[in-house]
Amino acid sequence: xxxxxxxxxxxTFLAEARVAVVSVVDGDARGPLTVPIWYGYAPGGEIxxxxxxxxxxxxxxxxxxxxSLCVQTTExxxxxxxVEGPVTVIDESVTRDERRDFARRYLGEEGAGxxxxxxxxxxxxxxxxxxxxxxxxSEDQG
Length: 142
Prior knowledge:
This protein is an alpha+beta fold. It has one domain: Pnp Oxidase, Chain A. The chain has helices at 7-15, 56-64, 96-118; strands at 20-24, 33-37, 47-52, 66-72, 79-91, 126-131, 135-140. Strands 1, 2, 3, 4, 5, 6 and 7 form a seven-stranded antiparallel beta sheet that branches. A hairpin with an 8-residue loop joins strand 1 and strand 2. The radius of gyration is 16 Å and the shape is globular. It holds the Pfam family PNPOx_N. One of its GO terms (molecular function) is oxidoreductase activity, acting on the CH-CH group of donors. Keywords: Oxidoreductase.
């Protein structure tokens, strides 16, 4: 019996606010870079990341042109969704309002405002990366 989620189940799961782990290849001599990150997603859409343009993660994603993203539950019943695909767009700037909207998913209205205000200097260094999910893996142990 397969424990894979249906297309609708995995998209709904991925659309929930979770901290993801992004992985991107880092050449032949190293394993992939694998780091936690906030992300955005709506069913049927693209994965959206906001990160510093000069970060190692951004440099590697630019070079590879694709990345993987995994989200999971940490309590039973364990579930996960992993997606991999090509970068479709890299927007070279992000506004303060766009950062606040993105942070709201994780911190709520008040927390997002405080977060952006406390990291205001970072706004000019941020980029938005979009990825089209092509390969999906999932499991629901419930």
